TrEMBL record, chain A:
It comes from Mesorhizobium amorphae CCNWGS0123. The lineage of its organism: Bacteria, Pseudomonadati, Pseudomonadota, Alphaproteobacteria, Hyphomicrobiales. InterPro entries: ABC_transp_permease, ABC_UrtB_bac, BCAA_transport_permease. GO terms for biological process: amino acid transport. This is Urea ABC transporter permease. Keywords: Amino-acid transport, Cell membrane, Membrane, Signal, Transmembrane, Transmembrane helix, Transport. GO terms for cellular component: plasma membrane. It holds the Pfam family BPD_transp_2. GO terms for molecular function: transmembrane transporter activity. The chain crosses the membrane at residues 246-273, 280-299, 305-325, 337-355, 388-405, 472-496, 502-521. The keyword Signal applies.
């Protein structure tokens, strides 16, 4: 966003410098100087409006700086500057030309305060000024603002912008913005009806919002047309809503799958009730934090790669801790589920408090790499990149695990030990080591889940607590010992949950899901995909 | 006079110490300090918020000792860890009072932990200083509430949003975590908004569980609610850990503060520390203190804090200021009473006035709540808040909300003749009933 704006600014600046030098520059400076004399938001707003009214593209720099809180007044002489922070001091740039003119300590300048109302006023003002920007994304942003804040005065600049526009997409947006402005103007009814039709065809929430206010403020044919358009938008949005619920459900399912997939090994395959599973996820998240910390201080250019670097490390850290837990505690407790439960619960508390002592109890900031920020619109569906990547990642992790279990000698040994320990041992498999490595594998997978979850959740010592119940729920629901069951269980729980949420609310929705699972387990105690055969009974 | 007096006390106590040391050093040592209990979770879910308060208290006590202690004695902090476990709060409070014989306790964060220790404090007659903003509907003889009551945070925040500066909001989403503070606060706010002429269909109330992390549905519901052609705002009582994913989702779904601002009551500098705040610029919070407040007292407090915690990245926040005010009030009241005896200190507390960190004075009122200014701040890209609005004067904490039918007739006055926390002015009797 900032990059785009900066790009737009430079383009504008270039355009401005190509034009013959503006005689009104002195006037602009006089208006800008008023920022220093007025006090309070309303005074600032008046100056902003005055600047915008000049219609001079030069005012974009000071206005954009003001919106971002970068416009300063020097205390000594009340001069107004655009400031960019550089350590303890601030570099002061000329508000119109953008050339560096001075430097000042933070104490010697005051920031001109802005609030949301002012930001909105500035955004609207910039909208009209950037209609002719070279960068189409800036023009799209301008069209978007003008659509959301229709004003009869916008029609003329939009008309000329439409005439000059060459990009078909941008042109369509301009026409919609013009239609929005027509609706609040005094134009004849026929124009307004055409405008309603145009906006109705747009069909998104912004159109709905605009038409709702039109419906409330007009009479006759326009009101009827607006009502009809609202009806058709609503019915198409209802479909999109269902699609959205499915997507949200899949996305929640992928998070559940990630959290549960390691447990599907330690609990599902080995039968260890591992209450410290969540803490393995937490260790993975903290590994990501440490990796990002090192990158931030030593190799800032690599930041976008931080997650890729963190993945193997998180796997190793969590797998190592898992190995130590198995060798140190769990191997003495095989076949004693209650003691295992208590011991691993204790281990989880120890791990939590250890992390709390080392990193402190507060949340740690794990940044999103640029390719995981923001969202992409598919029709009326906003799909956020981080959720999409987590889905891809969860399925990838699942595929790798499935391959390891089904296609490698190690996986064969694991399954053999699970199926019949004594037989496997007499075939020459070193069962204790297979146990240890299987547990380490499950823990390591939990560790890489932590890398992904650090992108959407808090990185705090409590991170694991939030996932342990859900993970057990998924594994038990899907069928203990069956990886495919975990997959299907995760996604079906996610989708059911997200379909219930809009109607029942998040709290009741969760309760309903739990009740459904209890009923289901009563009916099918072994979950969706039960393992069959003698081995299970043993 | 005063200097002389304190010098005399100091000499006197020094000789007592000396005598004590000569007689039987270990046994008497305990009597020569004043013990102060600190009851904040250092492990479990709430450690994230409460550990900071423990450190802040240790700093305040250390500073007071550097100034010569209290009544000529050194203060000694007794720290216990109730581990975010509500019944354990009551046990640890009992241990502090009966076993360690503390003179006062500073502690608790969640309302449920406060409710769990109340019977202990009234039974053993000791003092609790509670530093967190809360839902009101309570006034106990043994508790001093230094955090904000709803009228010192929620109501002014809503007033700001309704004003022209705040964007003349007409449609409201009340989003909260599902427990007593958000539920009571939202009940008060709903009644208040309706009294201001907001229609029922323009209010949406929604609750999520503790530690909720999947906000997609909620955020898109807010987006949907906001597309009805009227200016919409979210009033968030979402607690602690759930905030980070909530704000991340707002940023990802492109909800900007200019369009739908979120006004939060539980998000402070500490919560923002784990977050990239660039997409959140302009979202709001209402508190009685911001770290960015530019006063000499605050500058000194921040500098002391950084020195004490040996990390100049650690932030300060509103509950820390509440402890700062509460602790200084207690010191002043003990000096006034000349003893740490809880009964006398409780009486001496009322009317005590100490400087707060926002450039004014806070006074303990007869209802055991304090006066504070209310600040509205906007989140900045550097994780700090910029004050955009401030109440012209101090606001007095109102324990029984005027907007709830059950509590509007109740008042609290712990001064001698009345001495009642829930006096019903309609019936003229002590013992009216609030919503809790």
């Amino acid at each position: 966003m900032i990059l785009l704006r900066a790009l737009g600014l430079t383009l504008l600046f270039l355009m401005a410098s190509l034009l013959p030098s503006n005689a009104a520059e002195a006037d602009l400076r006089a208006i800008i100087a008023k920022f220093a004399t007025g006090t309070g938001f309303s005074a600032t707003e008046a100056v902003v409006r005055e600047l915008a009214a000049t219609g001079d593209p030069l005012v974009e720099r000071p206005l954009a700086a003001l919106a971002e809180g970068n416009l300063y007044i020097r205390k000594a002489d009340s001069a107004v500057f655009v400031g960019t922070e550089a350590g303890d001091s601030v570099a002061l740039l000329d508000p119109l030309s953008g050339e560096k003119s001075a430097e000042a300590a933070k104490a010697d300048i005051t920031k001109i305060k802005v609030n949301n109302t002012l930001r909105r006023v500035i955004r609207d003002a910039l909208g009209t000024l950037t209609l002719r920007a070279k960068d189409p994304t800036v023009r799209i942003a301008a069209a978007d603002t003008m659509f959301k804040t229709p004003d009869a005065a916008n029609i003329e600049p939009l008309d000329s912008a439409i005439a000059a526009e060459t990009d078909a997409n941008v042109k369509a947006l301009f026409e919609q913005a013009r239609a929005a402005s027509v609706l609040v103007s005094e134009r004849p009814e026929a124009d307004k009806l055409a405008a309603v039709a145009l906006i109705g065809a747009r069909g998104d929430r912004d159109a709905l919002s605009l038409l709702t206010s039109v419906e409330a403020n007009s009479q006759g044919a326009v009101k009827d047309a607006a009502t009809a358009a609202i009806g058709s938008i609503n019915s198409s949005l209802a479909l999109w809503d269902a699609g959205q619920n499915i997507w949200y459900g899949i996305s929640l399912g992928s998070v559940l799958l990630l959290a549960a997939i390691g447990l599907a090994i330690t609990f599902g395959v080995m039968g260890v009730i591992n209450m410290a599973h969540g803490e393995m996820v937490m260790l993975g998240a903290y590994t990501t934090f440490v990796v990002q910390q090192v990158i931030r201080t030593s190799f800032p250019g690599l930041f976008d790669w931080s997650l890729v670097i963190a993945l193997p490390l998180a796997f190793l850290v969590a797998a190592l801790v898992g190995l130590i837990i198995e060798r140190g505690v769990i191997r003495f407790l095989y076949g004693r589920p209650l003691e295992t439960l208590l011991a691993t619960w204790g281990v989880s508390l120890i791990l939590q408090q250890a992390v709390r002592s080392i990193f402190g109890p507060t949340n740690q900031e794990v940044g999103n790499p640029s390719w995981m920020s923001g969202s992409v619109d598919i029709g009326q569906l906003a799909v956020t990149w981080n959720r999409l990547w987590i889905l891809v990642f969860a399925l990838g992790a699942f595929a790798v695990l499935l391959y390891v279990m089904k296609r490698t000698p190690w996986g064969l040994q694991m399954r053999a030990v699970t199926a019949n320990r004594r037989m496997a041992a007499s075939m020459g498999i070193r069962t204790p080591w297979v146990d240890a490595l299987t547990f380490a594998l499950g823990s390591g997978i939990a560790g890489i889940a932590g890398v992904a979850l650090s992108q959407i959740d808090n990185v705090s010592p409590n991170l694991g607590r939030g996932y342990i119940i859900d993970s057990f729920m998924v594994v038990v629901f899907g069928g203990v010992g069956n990886l495919w069951g975990t997959l299907v269980g995760a996604f079906s729980l996610g989708i059911v949950n997200k379909f219930l949420e809009p109607y029942a609310g998040a709290v009741l929705g969760k309760i309903v899901v739990l009740v459904l699972i209890i009923l289901f387990i009563q009916k099918r105690p072994r979950g969706l995909f039960a393992l069959k055969g003698r081995a299970v009974e043993a | 006079m005063r200097g002389n007096f304190s010098k005399i006390t100091k000499m006197f106590s020094a000789s007592v110490v000396a005598a004590g040391l000569l007689a039987s050093a270990p046994a008497r040592a305990a009597d020569d300090t004043i013990k102060v209990g600190i009851l904040h979770s250092l492990s479990g879910t709430m450690a994230i918020s409460e550990t900071t308060l423990k450190d802040a208290m240790l700093m305040l006590i250390e500073e007071q000792n550097a100034k010569g202690g209290l009544l000529g004695k050194k203060l000694e902090a007794v720290v216990v860890d109730p581990a975010s476990n509500w019944p354990l709060f009551a046990e640890k409070a009992r241990e502090l009072i009966s076993k360690d014989k503390v003179a006062a306790v500073f502690g608790c964060w969640t309302s449920v932990s406060r409710k769990s220790v109340l019977p202990v404090f009234s039974e053993l007659d000791n003092i609790l200083f509670y530093p967190v903003q809360y839902e009101g509907e309570e006034s106990e003889r043994n508790v001093f509430y230094t955090g904000a009551a709803p009228n010192q945070q929620a109501i002014p925040a809503v007033d700001y949003l309704m004003s022209e500066d705040g964007g003349s909001v007409k449609r409201w989403v009340l989003e909260g975590t599902d427990y007593v503070y958000p539920r009571t606060t939202n009940k008060i706010l709903e009644a208040y908004l309706k009294a201001k002429g907001v229609a029922a269909e323009d209010i949406m109330v929604n609750y999520t569980p503790f530690g909720f992390s999947d906000w997609q549905t909620e955020v898109s519901a807010i987006k949907k609610f906001g597309s009805a052609g009227k200016k919409t705002a979210v009033v968030s009582t979402v607690n602690g850990d759930a905030n980070v994913p909530f704000y991340k989702e707002l940023g990802n779904q492109g909800i900007k503060a200019e369009d739908i601002p979120v006004m939060a009551f539980s998000v402070g500098e500490e919560e923002l520390a784990g977050l990239d705040t660039a997409p959140l610029v302009g979202h709001l919070a209402a508190w009685n203190y911001f770290e960015s407040v530019d006063t000499p007292e605050n500058k000194k407090f921040i500098a002391d804090w950084h020195k004490f915690i040996k990390n100049d990245k650690r932030t300060t926040n509103d509950p820390m200021e509440a402890h700062y005010i509460g602790f200084n009030m207690w010191v002043k009241a003990v000096e006034k009473a000349g003893t740490t005896d809880p009964d006398k200190v409780i009486d001496a507390m009322i009317g005590v006035s100490v400087p707060n960190l926002t450039g004014g004075y806070s006074t303990m009122m007869p209802n055991h709540h304090i006066t504070k200014p209310v600040l509205i701040g906007e989140i900045q890209a550097d994780g700090q808040f910029e004050t955009v609005s401030q109440t012209p004067g101090l606001v007095m904490g109102d324990e029984w909300s005027d907007y709830l039918p059950d509590s509007k007739d109740l008042i609290s006055d712990w001064r001698a003749p009345l001495s009642c926390g829930n006096f019903n002015v309609a019936t003229g009797k002590c013992g009216g009933k609030g919503t809790n």
